[in-house]
Design a protein that fits this description.
The structure is a single chain. This protein is mostly helical and 466 residues long. The protein has one domain (3-463): Growth Hormone, Chain: A (Up-down Bundle), CATH 1.20.1250.20. Helix content is 82%, strand content 0%. It contains 22 helices and no strands. It has helices at residues 3-10, 14-40, 45-52, 56-83, 86-106, 110-138, 144-170, 175-180, 183-195, 200-205, 209-220, 223-236, 243-249, 251-269, 272-285, 290-314, 320-344, 349-367, 370-380, 384-415, 418-439, 448-456. Helix 2 packs parallel to helix 7. The longest helix is centred in the C-terminal third of the chain and has 32 residues, at 384-415. It is globular, with a radius of gyration of 22 Å. 54% of the residues are buried. Beta-D-glucopyranose binds at residues 38, 152, 155-156, 159, 267, 272-273, 276, 304, 371, 375, 398, 402.
Length: 466
């Protein structure tokens, strides 16, 4: 950040700071929907299967239709959030979320359930694209990293709440309540987003400068800072191309889009979602009974939430790259150990606890690093004129890879073996240490406009930040 902005930031009045933070918290609630959706299905599948008397294949379709919807939603969200605006896209996402979850709860056959999950997927595809974008555009630069991490915190809280609610409803086997109850937080989110201001950047893109100024004054409360930020936005708006055209014409933009794709491939291939979708089964492999499996799964959810605080505390202080290195190292080592333990077999109590503990260390490794930081980086590295497109492509990649991971784990376990599957993911994480060094920029304390300038001037990707 340059000296004008940092001086101004230091004098932001507390009521403006509070408004900005409240706005960010509300938008970050989109993450809660995301998490509820990821977490809710793992506990429901056994009951759905028994109720509808369907095969594992149909179950796979019910599970994965959500990710297909989300991938499609993420693609369309680029266009939506640029034409309708970020706020109205979030409203649309919230409405679809409520419709999808109610429909899941009342579905009378697997086909309806699949359609309902696609609608839910569309909702979080839109929300998972729009919320980080909105957050990056309204958060004061000094706390931008932490605010986007807040979004990840909401995802993890959503997952935890879903695990706990699954656990509670599992005693009566009420899968309809498991899936339907999430309409309630969805409706509250809808009320919240109706209150949000439009993103100042989007308003300026639409030529609504006066409104942008009003919003910024509310969020920053400091004339000097508002002028500075508006001048920065105006400058980056001068690039005349957009989205797909920019992608075709500008090789620098293609590099940032490629970086976003790579970052999301990295996030998913850490193997985190193997735990999110199959944790009970993995605990089963270690020798635990059904009830312990679900309790350990809840502990996984809680660990995921708590460790996200590490990222929130550190991201704007020590930066993105050191945390990513630490996370990938922790994940490589812990997965290698888990793979080895499973390979040699966990027979004693001590071995079982040790392996569960190591899996929790893996969760910590992800939650303190790649979980929040990949979303942060993806929203920071795209130039404004192509930001919708760039983040759309990376969010699409997130869901497409999520689908791949969710749909190959059991096949891998049956094909190459469970221990080897964990080693494979350990190897991926080791590769990501190198890729982080080679390609990932340090964006801590750099304005979005600075990042854009350096990218467009052809600097190496890892040098477009600090
Ligand atoms: C990822 C999700 C994952 C979640 C776990 C998110 O950042 O995108 O795929 O399930 O973290 O907390």
């Amino acid at each position: 950040m340059n000296s004008v902005a940092s001086t101004a930031a230091a004098t932001t009045p507390s009521h403006a700071k509070a408004t900005a933070i409240f706005t960010c918290i509300l938008a970050a609630l989109a993450g809660l929907m995301f998490g509820l959706d990821i977490g809710v299905i793992s506990g429901a599948t056994d009951f759905i299967k028994a109720d509808f008397a369907i095969s594992d294949r149909t179950i796979e379709w019910i599970v994965s239709s959500m990710m297909i919807g989300a991938a499609a939603g993420a693609l369309g969200a680029g266009w939506l959030s640029s034409s309708l605006g970020r706020k109205r896209s979030l409203v649309l996402g919230a409405i679809l979320f409520v419709i999808g979850s109610v429909l899941c709860g009342v579905a009378t056959n697997p086909e309806t359930l699949i359609v309902a999950r696609v609608i839910l997927g569309l909702a979080i595809g839109i929300a998972s694209f729009t919320a980080p974008l909105y957050l990056a555009e309204v958060a004061p630069e000094r706390i931008r990293g932490a605010m986007i991490s807040l979004y990840q915190l909401m995802i993890t809280i959503g997952i935890l709440v879903a695990f706990l609610s699954d656990l509670a409803f599992s005693y009566t086997g009420s899968w309809r309540w498991m899936l339907g109850i999430i309409a309630v937080p969805g409706a509250l989110f809808l009320l919240g987003v109706l209150w949000l201001p439009d993103s100042p950047r989007w308003l300026m893109m639409k030529g609504r400068t006066k409104e942008a100024e009003d919003v910024l004054l509310k969020l920053r409360g400091n004339r000097g800072m508002v002028d500075h930020e508006m001048a920065d936005i105006a400058e980056s708006l001068q690039t005349p191309q957009r989205g797909w055209h920019l992608f075709q014409e500008n090789s620098n933009f293609r590099r940032s889009v490629g970086l976003g794709v790579l970052l999301q491939v990295m996030q998913q291939l850490t193997g985190m979602n193997v735990m999110m979708y199959y944790a009970p089964r993995i605990f089963g492999t270690l020798g635990y009974d059904h009830e312990s499996q679900l309790w350990f799964t809840a502990i996984v959810g809680l660990t995921n939430v708590l460790a996200t605080f590490i990222a929130i505390g550190l991201v704007d202080r020590i930066g993105r790259k050191p945390i990513l290195y630490a996370g990938f190292v922790v994940m490589t080592i812990s997965l290698a150990i888990v793979g080895t333990m499973i390979h040699i077999g966990t027979t004693t109590r001590a071995e079982q606890y040790f392996t569960v503990g190591t899996l929790l260390v893996f969760i910590i490794g992800f939650a303190m690093s790649a979980g929040p930081l990949i979303w942060t980086l993806c929203s920071e590295v795209q130039p404004l004129k192509g930001r919708d497109f760039g983040i759309g492509v990376s969010t699409f990649t997130n869901w497409a890879m999520n689908w791949v991971v969710g749909n190959t784990f059991l096949t891998l376990v049956n094909g190459i073996g469970p221990g080897q599957t964990f080693w494979l993911y350990a190897a991926f994480n080791a590769v990501f240490i190198v890729l982080t060094f080679w390609l990932v920029p340090e964006t801590k304390g750099v304005t979005l406009e600075d990042i854009e300038r350096k990218l467009m001037h052809g600097k190496k990707l890892r040098d477009i930040g600090a």
